[in-house]
Amino acid sequence: MGFYGERILPRLVDVTCGSAKLRPIRSWACEGLTGHVVELGFGSGANVGVYPAAVTQVTAIEPSDAAWAMAADRLATAKIPIQRGGLDGARIPFADNTFDAALSTFTLCTVPDLPTALGEVRRVVKPGGAVHFLEHGLAPDENVRRWQHRLDPIEQRVAGGCHLTRDIAAELTRAGLVIIQSKQFYGARPKSFGALTVGVAQV
Fold it and tell me: Considering the entire predicted model, what is its pTM?
């Protein structure tokens, strides 16, 4: 990844995706989570403190050592056990049907092999388990989409492979997950970067 990807980018992500303005939306995305949760792209732990009381444990899948180190202060305040359980969402090192639910916030846009990663989620989450997501991606409006397609190559280069043009709900559906609820809206400006989707899918 190089110095930028290993040291600078995790801090930029922490500032942009970990802002206080997003905390209510993160809390909304986590509503209804229960039991042992596998969290893809744990990052610097921005969801710590918004997990519902019904969550008993979180296993974090996080490739960045720098991001995990940045999470230390948040982890120290956690009221539930949180452990780092893997580095790669495409190879989750747990047995089938291990987890009660999964959570992904601002992660699916960046996963290099998204179909494989979502297949892994289906494998390790128990049948009927919920997959909660909060992601940015392809906008609902065509004029915004045009700008996203123009900016996407630049975004991928400067933001660690992040895609502006992934249709998150469609990707989940293609992976065999069933969308139970989903809402798309603009959470920030410019709209090209602020098209958000929050929802729940079922394994």
Answer: 0.93
